[in-house]
């Protein structure tokens, strides 16, 4: 097993991933399967381990954003279907075909270019419909028809059709409803023209949890698989009991008593109000713990203590309530004693969403995978 030489690590509870996949599977109608969305290194959790766990727990397929991410999973020996959700260069389509990786398409010229390349293996494709996200996809029946006409090459296989919701996590569902309606208009026209079976998938975590009966053949389950709510609105609906998989920890590497009136860290933005115990922790903005998090709490000995002074590239300082020995555990995200710091608390403080918090913890922090309370795998910088 890989090892690492720093006292800062992310812990990923694979049992939580398993629980979340199984819970969604139980909740969805039998006809609806699951794409485990493991793009962006599994939302920062580690793509290979999460993918393997999700597939072993009931997901049938994987979704990523980039061809590079799909190839990484294939290289790790994963043979399950993988769909690339983003745009891939036409010149790289033969590589996708060679590795049996499914691509997303929505442009006529993209298909025309792909067809000009030499490749033997069948290229499996999913057509993207833009029903109101405004990002990628065809928006009209005419555009869709033009794409279907270009699928006249026996090497191209249309396996699926999908769209993506922009606001299924919100209180006001007007935009969601408009997208569903547009999807059905396009679907009717599609079915008149295309007589072969295709897989339909529309829902992200929010839509699959709120509208399980509307979910067609598959859902694309991302944030919920990691045990995090898509939004406060969805969390408050309490549809599925999700278990967060991600926690972030470090240890005190230096502890000292600082005289009243002394300053701490760059810019001298914090001055001790009395004689204070100050601890130094080896986590910084190069690890993803951004400077904006100055002032937020950490957990030490089950108690909350604030980060004081500017967060440096590799280290930060915490105001302690008493002396603690070097090596004392510091929890930034997760449970310690009776208290817990949730990803959502960090997101609120940083004025962002939970998705961004787990994604921002950088490659420099080792990922330690835990199953049944035992460490089963470690990924760190030398194994990338
Ligand atoms: N499908 C597509 C096309 C996506 O882009 C995403 C997430 C998902 C499914 C999964 O969504 P969920 O995590 O809410 O379940 N994409 C993004 C994104 O582009 N920015 O934030 C989340």
Summarize the structure in short:
Helix content is 28%, strand content 27%. The protein has 384 residues and is of the alpha/beta class. The strands form 3 sheets. Strands 1, 10, 11, 14, 15, 16, 17, 18, 19, 20 and 21 form an 11-stranded mixed sheet that branches. It has an 8-stranded parallel β-barrel with strand order 2-3-4-5-6-7-8-9. The chain has a two-stranded antiparallel ribbon with strand order 12-13.
Draw up the topology in text.
Elements lengths: L7 E6 H14 L5 E5 L1 H5 L3 H11 L3 E4 L2 H9 L6 E3 L8 H6 L3 E4 L2 H8 L7 E7 L11 H10 L5 E8 L10 H20 L5 E5 L1 H6 L7 E4 L10 H6 L8 E6 L2 E5 L4 E2 L5 E2 L4 E6 L15 E4 L2 E6 L7 E5 L8 E8 L2 E3 L1 H7 L4 H7 L6 E5 L2 E6 L5
Parallel strand pairs: 1-20, 2-3, 2-9, 3-4, 4-5, 5-6, 6-7, 7-8, 8-9
Antiparallel strand pairs: 1-10, 10-18, 11-14, 12-13, 14-17, 15-16, 15-18, 16-17, 18-19, 20-21
Polypeptide structure, described:
- With 384 residues, the protein is α/β, with parallel strands linked by helices.
- It contains 12 helices and 21 strands.
- The strands form 3 sheets. Strands 1, 10, 11, 14, 15, 16, 17, 18, 19, 20 and 21 form an 11-stranded mixed beta sheet that branches.
- α1 (14-27) crosses α3, α7 crosses α8 and α11 (343-349) packs across α12.
- The chain starts with 7 loop residues before the first strand and ends in a 5-residue tail after the last strand.
- The structure holds ligand PMH.
- The site of ligand PMH has 13 residues, from α9 and β9.
- Its cofactor is pyridoxal 5'-phosphate.
């Amino acid at each position: 097993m890989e090892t690492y030489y720093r006292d800062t690590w992310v812990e990923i509870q694979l049992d939580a991933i398993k629980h979340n996949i199984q819970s969604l599977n139980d909740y969805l109608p039998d006809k609806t399967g699951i794409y485990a969305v493991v793009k962006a290194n599994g939302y920062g959790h580690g793509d290979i381990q999460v993918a393997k766990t999700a597939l072993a727990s009931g997901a049938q397929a994987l979704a990523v954003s980039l061809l590079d991410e799909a190839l990484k999973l294939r290289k790790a020996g994963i043979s399950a279907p993988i769909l690339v959700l983003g745009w891939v260069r036409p010149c790289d389509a033969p590589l996708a075909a060679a590795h049996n990786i499914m691509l997303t398409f929505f442009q006529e010229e993209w298909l025309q270019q792909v067809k000009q390349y030499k490749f033997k293996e069948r290229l499996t494709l999913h057509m993207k419909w833009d029903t109101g996200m405004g990002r990628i996809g065809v928006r009209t029946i005419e555009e869709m028809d033009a794409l279907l006409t270009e699928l006249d090459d026996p090497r191209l296989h249309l396996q699926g059709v999908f769209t993506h919701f922009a606001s299924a996590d919100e209180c006001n569902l007007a935009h969601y409803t408009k997208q569903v309606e547009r999807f059905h208009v396009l679907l009717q026209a599609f079915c008149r023209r295309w007589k072969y079976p295709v897989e339909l998938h529309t829902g992200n975590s929010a839509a699959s949890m709120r509208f399980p009966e509307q979910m067609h053949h598959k859902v694309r389950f991302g944030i919920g698989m990691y045990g995090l709510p898509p939004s406060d609105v969805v969390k408050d609906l309490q549809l599925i009991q999700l278990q967060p998989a991600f926690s972030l920890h470090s240890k005190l590497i230096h502890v000292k008593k600082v005289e009243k009136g002394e300053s701490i860290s760059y810019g001298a933005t914090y001055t001790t109000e009395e004689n204070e115990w100050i601890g130094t922790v080896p986590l910084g903005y190069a690890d993803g713990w951004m400077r904006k998090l100055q002032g937020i709490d950490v957990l030490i000995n089950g108690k909350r203590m604030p980060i004081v002074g500017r967060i440096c590239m590799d280290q930060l300082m915490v105001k302690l309530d008493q002396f603690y020995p070097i090596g004392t555990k510091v929890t930034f995200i997760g449970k310690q004693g009776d208290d817990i710091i949730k990803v959502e608390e960090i997101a609120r403080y940083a004025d962002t969403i939970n998705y961004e918090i787990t994604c921002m913890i950088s490659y420099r922090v080792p990922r330690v995978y835990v199953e049944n309370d035992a460490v089963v795998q470690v990924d760190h910088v030398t194994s990338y």
